[in-house]
Design goal:
It is a single chain. The protein has 10 helices and 13 strands. By secondary structure, the protein is an alpha+beta fold. The protein folds into 3 domains: 160 residues, ibrinogen binding protein from staphylococcus aureus domain (ibrinogen binding protein from staphylococcus aureus fold); 103 residues, no CATH class; 113 residues, no CATH class. A 5-stranded antiparallel beta sheet has the order 5-6-7-8-9, with helices on one face. The longest helix is centred in the last third of the chain and has 51 residues. The chain is elongated, with a radius of gyration of 38 Å.
């Protein structure tokens, strides 16, 4: 499930318990992640903000992060501006995937300092932005400008503006009729485009998840898909849509939610919890565990794929070596023929003209004295051609012994490599 506005609102609702906590550490484990060390109420917490396009999120974490020896520039800037500041408030607007963390430093009661850390979790447009009390950007993790086809200017000294949206706010809906009035035109359009399916108003035919996600702000397609499945809704009747509306509304306003994994364990969704006395930050740490396991699995997969590519390249080399060995063995099959040529030439030298010839015909006393044509290199006399045939025979004989052993060893190596590949792909 995408870290949509509903998840953002639920996670932030838990983080309100951190009001009054002081920032005492700032880390930047990688170019997409900032971790704030917080202290308050006698406990230490770590708040992770990740703006990676594929896994942007915000939650408390209990898993240590590996930090670079030299802190990056943005990390150093945040340390300079935020260490010693307390969280005055943390909140979201509507179901936007934007978290506003209001910070204050009142070491000088007569002149308190206020700043704001804004975490925008919007896929490839995600960002972490630090502003002063007048919404002037001090710096951000990523700089963008309108000239670069961004919808806003995000760079130091620019004024921070809230991103615009053309979608409706689910929180402003008065009732189901209001909800239905917003999606009915798009639903009707989808039905008209697929009029042949008018008698089978199945969810899968009309992409209700996409219609709702494109109509209302902060509601992801995967969230709608999982709620439809959880409620066993398969058609788009008005009664089914009202049941969906009520459940979504209930989840958005609930203070007792839990993360549930999908059947394949590769995704999650939030739903009402049946448990009592849930821990204050249970959603945060459940989200932390999910992404920790997911990233570890991806790390292992990437490492496995790297090893697999290396092994496949090695296998290709061994297979090429085996082909060369087989080609050499094919040559060795002719070694007895070369020995025969040498013997016949040597034993018949007395009657072979001592001159350069292209070939000669001799009786093969190994085969009832049948005539055999022996090719000769015209550059050399017949006697020297005999020596060359004996030399070639001797060379191939020695090669046969060596490459036979090499072939067995190579086959064993290939079998071993293939067994490793099988284990890696299992």
């Amino acid at each position: 499930m995408a870290f949509d506005g509903i998840v953002t609102k639920s996670i932030t609702q838990e983080l309100k318990n951190m009001v009054g906590y002081k920032i005492d550490k700032v880390y930047e484990p990688d170019k997409n992640t900032i971790v704030l060390g917080l202290y308050g109420k006698g406990t230490n917490l770590a708040l992770l903000s990740c703006i990676s396009a594929s896994s942007c999120r915000l939650h408390l974490t209990s898993h240590p992060q590996k930090n670079p020896a030299i802190a990056p520039n943005f990390c150093m800037l945040l340390r300079k501006h935020l260490i010693g500041f307390k969280i005055k408030n943390i909140d979201t607007v509507d179901l936007e995937r934007i978290i506003f963390m209001e910070l204050e430093n009142n070491e000088n009661p007569n002149k308190p300092i206020y700043k704001k850390l804004i975490i925008e979790l919007m896929g490839k447009h995600s960002n972490i932005i630090l502003t002063n009390e007048n919404n002037i950007i001090i710096d951000s993790m990523r700089h963008t400008t309108v000239e670069e086809h961004s919808n806003r200017d995000i760079y130091p000294t620019a004024r921070y503006f809230f991103p615009e949206t053309k979608k409706y706010s689910f929180l402003e809906l008065k009732n189901f009729d209001d909800f239905y009035a917003k999606i009915e035109p798009r639903l009707a359009e989808s039905i008209m485009l697929q009029v042949q399916n008018i008698d089978n108003l199945a969810i899968s035919n009309f992409k209700l998840d996409k219609i709702i996600s494109n109509t209302f702000n902060g509601i992801s397609m995967s969230f709608v898909q999982n709620i439809l499945k959880k409620l066993n809704i398969t058609d788009i009747s008005k009664d089914a849509l009202e049941l969906l509306y009520q459940k979504v509304n209930e989840i958005i306003h609930s203070t007792s939610l839990e993360i549930f994994l999908t059947e394949d364990k590769k995704d999650y969704f939030i739903f009402n919890s049946s448990k009592e006395n849930l821990e204050p930050y249970h959603l945060n740490f459940a989200m932390d565990n999910f992404y920790f396991e997911k990233e570890n699995a991806e790390l292992f997969k990437n490492y496995r794929n790297s090893i697999l590519n290396l092994i496949l390249a090695t296998l290709k080399k061994y297979e090429k070596r085996l082909k060369n060995i087989d080609d050499k063995l094919a040559e060795c099959k002719d070694m007895d023929k070369f020995r025969l040529y040498g013997e016949l030439i040597t034993s018949n030298l007395y009657k072979i003209p001592n001159q350069n010839l292209n070939h000669i015909e001799l009786e093969n006393y190994y085969n009832n004295n049948e005539l055999i044509t022996i090719p000769l290199d015209k550059k050399y006399l017949p006697s020297y051609n005999a020596k060359r045939y004996f030399k070639k025979y001797s060379k191939l004989k020695n090669a046969l012994e060596v490459v036979t052993v090499q072939k067995q060893e190579t086959i064993q190596d290939i079998e071993y490599i293939e067994s490793v590949i099988y284990e890696l792909e299992a």
